[in-house]
Amino acid sequence: MVKIRLTRMGRRNRPFYRLVVVDSQKRRDGAYIDSLGFYDPIRDPAQTNVDVEKAVQWIMKGAQPTETARSILSKFGVMKKVNELKYVKSGETKE
Predict the structure, then answer these.
(1) pLDDT confidence tier of residue 89, bands split at 50, 70 and 90
(2) What is the pLDDT of residue 7?
(3) What is the DSSP letter of 93?
(4) Which secondary-structure segment (H or E) carries 60?
(5) Distances in Å between the alpha carbon of 80 and those of 25, 26, 75, 77?
């Protein structure tokens, strides 16, 4: 299964995370398929950047975001866009 999750970067006590697409059986900081953006919790306010189009494409292909990744993606409107592509296009609405 392909997942969208965070991989930790940065030095000790200064974490920096990349939002990546990775096989679920790979280790947390292992090789990844594609990078979608980053999340820097140290900055005030936390700095985040996401490539929305890439994220939508991967979710439409079947990649499952983790809980943390899903919250970051929904702040950028990715989950809303995926919902529109899946349900509104076919004439159905998901309640």
Answers:
(1) low
(2) 92
(3) -
(4) helix 52-61
(5) 28, 28, 10, 5
